[in-house]
Each structure stands twice: as C-alpha cells, then as structure tokens.
Amino acid sequence: MVHGDPQSSGPETIVRIRGRLEFKCLLDSRDALQMQKEISRTFETLHSQVKSESCIFTVCNSPIIIWPNRGVCATPEEITPNTSCEELQQWIPTNEHESVGKRAVKRKSKKSPATSVINLCLMMEVTKPGPLPAPVLSRNVHKSRFLSTTLPIDCVIHTTCNNTIKAAFELLLEALTHQLHEMEKVMLQHMKGANLLLPEPLHFLLPDSKGLVTVVYPAGVPDSQLEMQRKELHQQYELPNERPYFKRANAYHFPNEPYKDGYLRNPHLVLTQPSLDNGKVYLVQGIYSYYHYMQDHMDDNGWGCAYRSLQTICSWFQQQGYVERPVPTHKEIQQALVDIGDKPAAFVGSRQWIGSIEIQAVLNQLLQVTSKIMFVSQGSELASKGRELANHFLTEGTPIMIGGGVLAHTILGVAWSETTGEIRYLILDPHYTGGEDLQVITDKGWCGWKRPDFWDQTAYYNLCLPQRPKVI
After folding, report:
1. Which residues are catalytic, by number?
2. What is d(CA 375, CA 66) in angstroms, rounded to the nearest whole number?
3. Where are the alpha helices (DSSP H) in 92-204?
4. Are the C-beta atoms of residues 468 and 322 closer than 8 Å to each other?
C-alpha cells in the first residue's frame, strides 16, 4: 500500500519509522481456530498500543521525542504540530562531526538530493507520571504454551518538506495500522499447527510514479514459493507480468544507507547528460555494481577487463531479481566455459582473455540468460548503431559488453539524435585499478560519456546484448 499526501507540494520527503513490537501470545489450545483467535487478539493489543498515548516516535540522531497521540506533543519545546518536515530535518546532523541539538537548526541549508529521508524509531513508554501505587506481585504456576517474539515494524510514507509533522504523522499512524493488519494476515495465512512465520516488511519502488509500496512477506519463505502473491500484486498495481518487481532483490535501497559489500552502484547517476540537437538519452534500467580491475584481492590488471564487464552484467541480473546466485568469480567464469566444452581444462586458473562470444556463453550457462551479438567490422561503424542501441536500452535495459582488439568495456546507455545521427556512449570502464572513489571515477572518465572517436576506428567489435527473461 502507498501512503502519501497527493495534495502537498514541494521537494519529496520519505518518512520512515522502524522498531520492534513485542508479540506475546498464549497458544494453549490445540484447536487451530482458537489459536487464530488468540493471535488476532494479540494483534488487537498491538493496535491499541500504537494508538495509545504511550506510543513514541524518536527522530534518529537527534534529541527529538514525539508523542503522536497526544496532539503531536514533542520535546524540545521548539517542535510543534505545525513544524514542517524541512524544519525537523534541520535538527538532524548531516555528518558525524556536526553536533546534535539546537545548534543544528541554525546551520545553512545545503544542496540536498531530490528525495530526503527522515528516520524515526518506534518506541513504547513504559513508565507513567507519579504518584504510583505500590506494586502487587502474584504467582500462578501452571504449564502453558507461550509465544514470545518481536515484530519488525518498518513503515514509510511520502510527503513533502513543506508539510507539517502533524499531517505526516497522521499518515504514518495510518501506515502502522495497515502494516499490523498485513502482518496478521501473513501470520495466519502461513500458520502450520503451532508454528508461526514472522512477517517481513519490504518496500518496492514501482515505475510510472506509483511510488514506494510496502509488502509484507513471510520470513524464510523463498521467492520461488511466493509467485502467486507476486501475481496478485502485479494485478493490483497494473504491472506487466514479465518483470520481477516484487522479488526481494528489488527491495528499495534507501539513499542514506550504504551498501555493505563495498561496490559502487550506478556511478553514472551523478553525471551530466550530454545535450544533442533533438537528441534523447537511453539508459540502463535498474541497479548494477561497478566491477573493475584489482577488486576482491584479484590481480587481473591487463587481462581481466571482459571478466569484470561480465561481473557488472551479472550484478544487474542479480539486483533486479532475475537470478539469486552470487556474481561469479574469474575461476567460476572459466569453469563454465570448460563445462560447455568451449575451453580446455587448463583454462581454469589461467590469465587468458575472453570476449563477447564467451560472455554470451557464460550468461547462458550460469544465469540461463540469452544474448544477442552485434558484429561491427570496424569501430567507425559504431556511430551508425544509434537506433539499435537506443532500442536495446528502451526495451531490455541491460548493460552491454563490447569487446574490440584487446579491450572490453561496458556500455550503460547512449545519447542519440534521430534527426542528425549524432551519438554519445555512456561507458563504464573495467580497466580502472583504484579504490571505490566516486569522484575520481567520474572526474577521470572511468565512468563517463564518450564520443564516437573513443573507439578504435579500424578495429572490429563484438557487442553482447543480454536479454531480459520474462519472469514475475
């Protein structure tokens, strides 16, 4: 479900709240219907907690505490129900050297991304203002089956920086209530005897301005067993049944969260697109990792460029949810070519080059992905391939491996003018040997737009154009 304010205007803001709610339930009965009723009663208790005055939102990395069900009462006192989301963000340090607190409000605003994220933590107040009566303890001893766990709450809403926190938190409470309903449905649907599966909330960014959608899956159930749920979601959001929009690998990665594996994602997004007369830009669709020389403690300088281009392509298929297997290593790529009879056994562990035809074979062998091969007899002919390349990025959207002479590169897009034929190529260069420094990579042209004279005008080239599998 998408939660947002369609009438608000201004730069977009995502408000995200995470936390854990204690789920405690007596399951003494062996009767399935009775156990379902107990589970539903426990969820009713959780609904009451979220709607109670004990519910607290804390703004991460700030001193702000908010009681959303007490008229959006907050501390510090400068925070009021009419405080805008933009003002709330000014209390959050932008880096580790900035102090937390009121001083942050006075900092000069800096250029920020189009979408900003406000992270909140969901908590429950357990103490009450005094005076309190003395506690009374009682002890009853009996055997019972008691389930105690925590539910991983993770809700998001769309709003704008100009919207008030009162309006935003009303949407957030609505989203919390909806998520609890969805979690109850998932737990009951996948209940087997007294065994319960925890719900797992995930967010997906859908095309055509549908925004972020939150889906609750049963944790531990693989994607292969959730195809029916995905079909229902595709129907609900009017999506074509040929791309895996709702596979876990496609879950939205929030801009303020670093990737843990160390690889750069989509470095081309920081580049300025070329301007051509009556030209259009056609780009890779989705997320890929930048693989290049010398990564993973592998010295492949001078021979591994095609392997790295293939790894970038494999990362694209993995991160779009088409495959679950990890990105193959150099040896796994070589072994795949041996397994299909293309290379002798001695090829494994060697430092021999591979080209576009081998890339096509490995994609088919390891990922069951088919590819088209485009042959160009000399580099000067690449300038006339604008229509074919534009159509590939428009329909398939996958990275292209291009090999010519002794070099391999990855093409991530083209800027092409149908009227003039002028063309630019967006190139990801696997020959880079440095660290994962985005500024160096883009400033030095390791990821950048290239003119037709970038190619050797007399060398022949083969291009491997991977095709999307039609899966859901």
Report:
1. 305, 429, 431
2. 63
3. 165-189
4. yes
Joined tokens for residue 174: 């609505």
Give dist(CA 229, CA 208) in Å, integer: 21
Over pLDDT 90: what percentage of the chain? 79
Q: What letters, b where the CB count within 10 A reaches 16 and e where it falls short, cover 106-123? A: eeeeeeeeeebbbbbebe
Of 112-126, 196-210, 256-270, 296-310, the range with the lowest mean pLDDT is 112-126
Q: How far apart are CA 78 and CA 85, in angstroms?
A: 13
Listed residue (406, 377, 389) closest to 464, CA to CA = 389
For the chain, how big is the Rg over CA atoms in Å? 27
Residue 107 in this model has a pLDDT that exceeds 50: no
| CA angle centred on 305, ends 300 and 310, rounded to 5° | 115
The answer on pLDDT for 264 being more than 70 is yes
Does the global pTM surpass 0.70?
Answer: yes
- Give the torsion through C-alpha atoms of 260, 266, 270, 273, to 10 deg: 180
**The token pair that represents 75 in the structure block:** 């501390």
DSSP-derived pairing of the beta strands 447-450 and 461-466:
unpaired
Token pair 């947002």 is found at 4
Which stretches within 52-84 are classed as H helix? none
Q: Are 23 and 153 in contact (CB under 8 A)?
A: no
> In which order are the strands placed within the sheet that holds 115-124?
73-75, 65-67, 55-59, 115-124, 12-26, 146-160
- As a three-state string, the secondary structure of 417-448 is ECCCCCEEEEEECCCCCCCCCHHHHHHCCCEE
pLDDT per residue as tens digits for the range 54-96: 999 999 999 999 999 999 999 999 999 999 999 999 999 876 5
**Does residue 76 have a cis peptide bond before it, meaning omega lies within 30 degrees of 0?**
yes
